[in-house]
Amino acid sequence: MTDSSRRALLAAGSATVAALAGCAGAVLPGGGDGEKPAEERVDRTGEATVTVAVGADGGFSFAPEHVRIDAGTTVVWEWTGDGGGHNVYAVDGSFASDIVAEAGHTFERAFEAPETVEYVCTPHQTRGMRGTVEVVPAGDD
């Protein structure tokens, strides 16, 4: 192998590694720490059921993006029909919906214990389509 071939091969490998590193960082919102400033979270504590739009704001976001709920609350994600096929996929793998484009489709999950769950739309996560559910003990304000 010539020196120029080796250089070309190394350059291609480096570009691939850089591209993959960029993808890995795209999965977790906020750099992967799971914490969002309180002013960015929509406080829905005290509600038994909370609805999150899938495909909001031009089709490529969740609304609200970051929500705070009580333990025991059910979150219902409802598709708007905008932006093509979407899903709701927990980054930790604890839940996942099917990829659906149809308006009115719903997916729901009850959150029983305090935790913060990050989730993405896998087809659109590189476009920033991600959110979090912060679950606090019931009655915590």
Question: Which labels suit this protein?
Answer:
141 residues; alpha/beta; Immunoglobulin-like; five-stranded mixed beta sheet; four-stranded mixed beta sheet
What does this entry look like structurally?
With 141 residues, the chain is of the alpha/beta class. The protein contains 1 helix and 9 strands. It has one domain (3-136): Immunoglobulin-like, CATH 2.60.40. The protein has a 5-stranded mixed β-sheet with strand order 1-4-9-8-6, with no helix packed on it. Strands 3-2-5-7 form a 4-stranded mixed β-sheet, with no helix packed on it. The longest helix has 24 residues, at 3-26. It is globular and about 40 Å long.
* Residue-averaged pLDDT: 81
Inertia-based shape: globular
Q: How is the largest sheet built, in terms of strand order?
A: 1-4-9-8-6
Distance between the termini: 66 Å
Indicate how many domains the architecture comprises: 1
What fold name stands as the CATH topology? Immunoglobulin-like
Number of strands: 9
> What Rg do the Cα atoms give?
19 Å
Low-confidence residue ranges: 4-36
What fraction of the residues are assigned to beta strands by DSSP? 25-35%
What is the correct CATH architecture?
Sandwich
Topology of this protein?
Layout: H1 3-26, E1 42-43, E2 49-56, E3 61-63, E4 66-70, E5 73-79, E6 89-90, E7 106-111, E8 115-120, E9 130-136
Parallel strand pairs: 1-4, 2-5, 4-9
Antiparallel strand pairs: 2-3, 5-7, 6-8, 8-9
In short:
This protein is of the alpha/beta class and 141 residues long. The protein contains 1 helix and 9 strands.
